[in-house]
């Protein structure tokens, strides 16, 4: 899928959506996100720099971290492409891809002023992916707690929202 993209600059980020608490205690642990302090499901989205969603991962339980999802999905990027990612993907480095990622503050340490300036520059580029995820989440079914328990419907809702986002971008051009 990614080889058909005209641009070789991609942005990757994860997004969580709240769900009802599962009745099964084991599933409660799987779907509980310590980051959001609620039960949720997670997707990873890959965008082109211009905003078009080129890949949407499957829907995973909220406990699963972005990097783990990326490792399991095993994305294949075109050689020579650039990937902008946040610190949630620390250690994720697909072959033949240039990674642009902010430097993480070391434990019990501080970043130098130069590193902070570089991080601000990277963040100003990466803010685009956050805006595009916000565009996807204009569909309120993604923002509100998802109450439907129909099998696979949680995936369909996210796919539809990404399709609508891409359609909206095409209409703007």
Order of helices and strands: EHEEEEHEEHHH
**Main beta-sheet annotation:** 7 strands, mixed
Termini Cα gap? 22 Å
Low-confidence stretches: none
CA-based gyration radius: 17 Å
Query: What class, by secondary structure content?
Result: alpha/beta
Q: Name the beta content range.
A: 15-25%
How much helicity do the residues have? Answer: 25-40%
User: How many alpha or pi helices?
Assistant: 5
* Total strand segments: 7
Folded structure, characterized:
- The chain is globular.
- 36% of the residues lie in helices and 21% in strands.
- Strands 1, 2, 3, 4, 5, 6 and 7 form a 7-stranded mixed beta sheet that branches.
- It has helices spanning 25-31, 66-73, 113-136, 140-143, 153-172; strands at 9-18, 32-33, 38-48, 53-56, 60-61, 81-84, 97-100.
- By secondary structure, the chain is of the alpha/beta class.
- The relative contact order is 0.18.
- It has one domain (2-172).
Write the layout of secondary structure elements.
Layout: E1 9-18, H1 25-31, E2 32-33, E3 38-48, E4 53-56, E5 60-61, H2 66-73, E6 81-84, E7 97-100, H3 113-136, H4 140-143, H5 153-172
Parallel strand pairs: 1-6, 6-7
Antiparallel strand pairs: 1-3, 2-3, 3-4, 3-5
Q: What key phrases describe this protein's structure?
A:
alpha/beta; 7 strands; seven-stranded mixed beta sheet; 5 helices; 173 residues; 21% strand; globular; 36% helix
